[in-house]
Amino acid sequence: MSRFLLACRRQPVDRTPVWFMRQAGRSQPGYRALRARYSLLEICRHSDLVAEVTLAPVEQLGVDAAILFADITVPLLGMGVAFDLREGSGPHIHRPVRDAADLERLHPFEPEETVHALLDAVRLIRRSAPVPLIGFAGAPFTLASYLIEGGPSREFLRTKALMREDRRLWDGLMTRLTEATTSFLRAQIAHGAQAVQLFDSWVGALSPREYAVYAAPYSRRIFEAVRETGVPAIHFGTGTSGLLREMASAGGDVIGVDWRIGLDVAWAQIGYDRAIQGNLDPSLLLASPEVLRAEAEDVLSRAAGRPGHIFNLGHGVLPETPQQRLRDLVEFVHAYRPAAVV
Ligand code: CP3
To answer: What are the beta bridge partners of residue 278?
Structure first.
């Protein structure tokens, strides 16, 4: 079994596996050249292009896993939500969801109908990929925040107001998003994805109590559905230093952590019955090689040779990141040998 899948299962590995969130994207000159001709959603409609973009970082960086090239907004296409993806900011929803009539306009997402090219790409990638393929989806809270705010947000004021004041509408929206995400992940797994990651990127906006009430029950249903497939699941969010216990309780074989907490402190909170992924600050790839190496070594040393650490950044690769720095980091992680475990 590959070192990435072994680490997901907390089995011993020959070297620490490493991959990067957003490894396939704007930091890559090849991707930027392709984007000059096609929009992101156009790329997602061509399985050969999806496979090409997905596999480029595996070939060029030497990472231990591929992540399917898509976006968390893809299921919204099938739900009948009109939006555009703006570079540098993200999804902009033409008509945000604010009341029961808006909710009624959402359709169930049928992956085989709406995104068959992406699913074909999963099979295509599996035929030639030398490393496991990770499928992914957005978690209900993070998707709901885009639908309600209409775009990126700092404070999530409308989302929080709706969640607290209209329990029925919140439950209706979160239930639909839970179903869409579950269908999307199950379809990716059925076509060959060997692990999945649930991105709850913005859930760190919630207190532990509100997370447990308003977000965890929906994410938990998704992890229960994935568990039936036997494929390992990664549960990721940012700003979640105070939520790690609750996130682990909602589910995931691997918990993803950002850089705002020491990896050792995070792992103790999550519990050693789970694997951990992260937690290097992505901006360190723009620092000097010496500083980058020292901080990467610090992350590795905090894992203390315990099986089940997947090296990654605390969030996605920044567009300004030089490819050579990523290659050097992969080499550094692979060369690292932990001090004897006590
Ligand atoms: O290798 C990979 O990880 C690339 C595949 C990928 C994309 N989006 C492509 C993309 C993945 C895993 C995502 C997930 C995603 N999308 C998340 C969760 C991860 C995270 O960063 O928290 C979120 C919140 C989104 C929503 C989204 N889509 C945003 C915020 C943006 C703008 C980002 C920016 O800085 O421009 C997008 C657009 C997007 N999705 C781009 C890419 C490569 C860049 C713009 C483009 O190429 O058109």
So the answer is: 311
- Strand partners of residue 254: 234, 275
Protein residue closest via CA to atom 40 of ligand 1: 71
Residue 342 has pLDDT above 60, yes or no: no
Q: How far apart are CA 231 and CA 8, in angstroms?
A: 10
74: number of Cβ within 10 Å: 22
Q: How many helices (H) does the chain have, and how many strands (E)? A: 17, 9
Between CA 212 and CA 74 the distance in angstroms is 26
Cα separation, 152 vs 308, in Å, equals 33
CA gap 7, 303 in Å, rounded: 12
**End-to-end Cα separation, the chain, in angstroms:** 26
Active site residue 200: no
Centre of ligand 1 to C-alpha 246, Å, is 25
Does this model's pTM top 0.70?
yes
**Ligand 1 atom 10: the closest Cα is on which residue?**
71
Q: Is 40 in the pocket of ligand 1 (CB under 6 A)?
A: yes
Residue 33, ligand 1, Cβ within 6 A: no
| Confidence bin at 229 (pLDDT 50/70/90) | very high
Task: Compute the distance between CA of residue 218 and CA of residue 55 in angstroms, rounded to an integer.
Answer: 32
Q: What is the pLDDT of residues 91-112, one digit of tens each?
A: 999 999 999 999 999 999 999 9
Query: In the annotation, is 258 catalytic?
Result: no
Alpha helices in 228-262 (DSSP H): 244-250
- Nearest 5°: CA angle at 238, between 235 and 244? 60
Determine the distance separating the centroid of ligand 1 and the alpha carbon of 316, expressed in angstroms.
8
Q: Which of 296, 299, 281 is nearest to 328 (CA)?
A: 296
The CA distances from residue 337 to 184, 297, 301, 304, in Å, are 38, 10, 9, 10
